[in-house]
Structures are given as structure tokens and as C-alpha cells.
Amino acid sequence: MDRKPLVLQTKTGETDVMKVLIISDTHGNHKNLDRVLELERPYEQVIHLGDIEGDEDYLIAAAGCPVAAVRGNNDYFSQLPQEQVIEVAGKRALITHGHYYYVAAGTEHLLMEAKGRDVDLAMFGHTHRPLIRQEQGLTILNPGSLSYPRQEGRKPSYIVMETGRQGGIEIFLKYL
């Protein structure tokens, strides 16, 4: 079930078409991860927002494209970074699992950090609840969880970000 996308403007003259798959909290379970990877092909990038639980190599091999990933609170021995600032679809994005910003209690700390880093997007996981919101000129995204969803209805969720030839970005929250 798809909902109306959030549409953002990109830099003037940008014409590259790009599809980015944003996921989180897979917790070592491959069933829904594999389903989403196959369902959404082709895509140019995958972003994983933590709690991979040792499956970094599996994700990279299965995705078949560049993967940006961060360490979650259950990624005990992971060598992944705690957070990164990356460019995605012509926007600067802070990607983090979110637990260091207390996102279970709200996004205020994450919002302050993102504004201080001068990014356009702040992406996080951890809560297992999907979220797409614009606040103070910033877009905040949480794809929810593919393995253990906690929102009403408890459907596994993820986000697809697409750029179009007209220069806009559409952000879709999707459910399995």
C-alpha cells in the first residue's frame, strides 16, 4: 500500500533519475529484506540505518549496488560507523540509527544535530516506527522495521526515494 509521496525540490538543472531504497532494523532476518530488494529492483543505492546484526556482507552482496550503512544499538561487533553525512539524490543527509539522539523519546536532539551539520535530510531507525516529516526546513525519515514493526498494524515498512527528470524528489513510505 503506497501513500502520497513527499515531494522535495532538488538543485536547479539536476536531471539524473535515481532510486534509493532506505531500510532499517532488519535484525539479521533475510526474508523481508530479500523480498524488498527483489520487489524494488532496479535501484541505484541502498541505505541501511542500523541493527543489521552481522549481515553487512550479506546486504552488500544481495543489494548489488552501493550501500551506505550505520551501526545500530544491536550491532555489537560491527565496524560500521555510528553515523555518516552522505549525499543522496543531490541532498546532504545525516544517517544514524538514532539511539544516541534519544529518538525513542522524540526527534528534538536529532533535529538539533542535523541543523548543526547543515544537512537537508536526517534519517534514523531504532524506533521500528515509520516516519516522514518536514520540520524547520529539514526532512526527517525513519523507514520503520522490516523485521519487527511496532506501529499500529505492525506491517514491515521501508522508504523509496526517487528523483525525476523534472528535478524533484519523491519519498514513498511502503509496506509489505
Notes on the protein architecture:
- The chain has 176 residues and is α/β, with parallel strands linked by helices.
- Helix content is 15%, strand content 32%.
- It has three helices and eleven strands; from the N terminus they run E-E-H-E-H-E-E-E-H-E-E-E-E-E.
- The chain has a six-stranded mixed β-sheet, with helices on one face.
- The longest helix has 10 residues, at 31-40.
- The protein is globular.
Unreliable stretches covering 5 or more consecutive residues: 10-15
Structural class: alpha/beta
Terminal CA distance = 8 Å
Average per-residue pLDDT, rounded, comes to: 92
Count of helical stretches: 3
The number of strands is: 11
Strand content: 25-35%
Radius of gyration: 15 Å
What is the overall shape? globular
The sequence of SSEs as H and E is: EEHEHEEEHEEEEE
Main sheet specs:
6 strands, mixed
Helix content: 10-25%
Output the strand order for the largest sheet.
1-11-10-2-3-4
Task: Please tag this protein with its features.
single chain; 176 residues; globular; five-stranded mixed beta sheet; alpha/beta; six-stranded mixed beta sheet
